[in-house]
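Inputs:
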Amino acid sequence: MTALAVRHIAELCTCDPARGPAPGVIRDAALVARDGVITFAGPDAALDGHTVPADAVEIDARGSAVVPGFVDSHTHLVWLGDRGDEYAARAAGRTYEEIAASGGGIRATIRATAPASIDDLAGAARARARRMLRAGTTTVEVKSGYGLDHDAEMRQLDAAARLRADADVPDVALTYLPLHGVPDGDHSAYIDDVCERGVRNAASRAAFADAFCEVGAYSVEECERFFAAARASGLRPKLHAEQRSRTGGALLAARCGAVSADHLDHATASDLDALGSAGVAAVLLPGAALVLGGPPPPGRRALDAGCTVALATDCNPGTCYSESMPLMMSLAVATTGLTPAEALVAATTGGAAALALTDRGVLRPGCRCDAVILDTPHWVDLGYHLGGDVVRCVIRGGRAMVT
Ligand code: NIG
Ligand code: FE
């Protein structure tokens, strides 16, 4: 491994609370790493021969801003098929639920995805993951969920794991999401299988277990049973909760000590209080809420309730086809009541918390050197320049990936 030094940074957003108010800005700064780990984050003028190794690759940021690499903590990246027809149908007035009830939605993607080979699945996911890296994402969570069948779910996890061999994509965290689409008729035989061989075989592949707790999907009781089996196998719970209606998923997440509760568009004040008290991260997906025309996720209210807030894309073929974390920051500020600084922290430190990762999301010595050099001196342009091409260079594990 080599060393890296990024010099002449106009605004280094450390997102480190020890560096003052969010996002912990150091002006006229430098960032140094060795073997992929940050060794210095501070004023450029403080650099000397000891802080910059002689063999360091030097990048001149030319007065740009630098922020931590984004941690996209909720995606459904592994899918085949296309649902552009549903997008157009919703624009003409059909609802997500009507489309699902007539065999479309998640079921349509399962039909296209479940039979696919690991090679084909990995190829489709890799193209999206590369776009994510180019937009500044250095860690991405990827869920299964388009299998509704044991072997198909495992192939989706294995396809996502293949991305780990590719240097041009974000680092990957895996989540087993077997309770997403619903089988016809009684759910119990499918859930039995998930709770027996499903969690056993997913545990060697994934870190987390997730379910879609919703009217028309899975009940609180079904999700709770799944969580007990998942936890016994070593998988840590996450939950799609209160997305389209209030079902009690957030309280389940709090009661089970889930790592995160995601969506929360219909969460009440007491739901958010419970998540805050239980230390469950609130993962907000403002793109999905916007696309479906529902209420925005509760950004300000979740922070006021003491929650750690994360922002994520939800990248999927139905509710939010986007790989862009900067766009999610724009939407979070415009629709959820977060300040630009809170949105940046949610997209970095918050995402790391939602994946229980303590080595990233902050630019400080000892953390992974995952960072984004922007094409502007002002970090606030990340959200302010709506849909803008704000990323100049992405540094992943101490290596400059895109220039
Ligand atoms: O997070 N709500 C459930 N799952 C996804 C949508 C998946 C799909 O429509 O294919 C979500 O919005
Ligand atoms: Fe989702």
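The two ends are 19 Å apart (CA to CA). Flag for discussion at group meeting.
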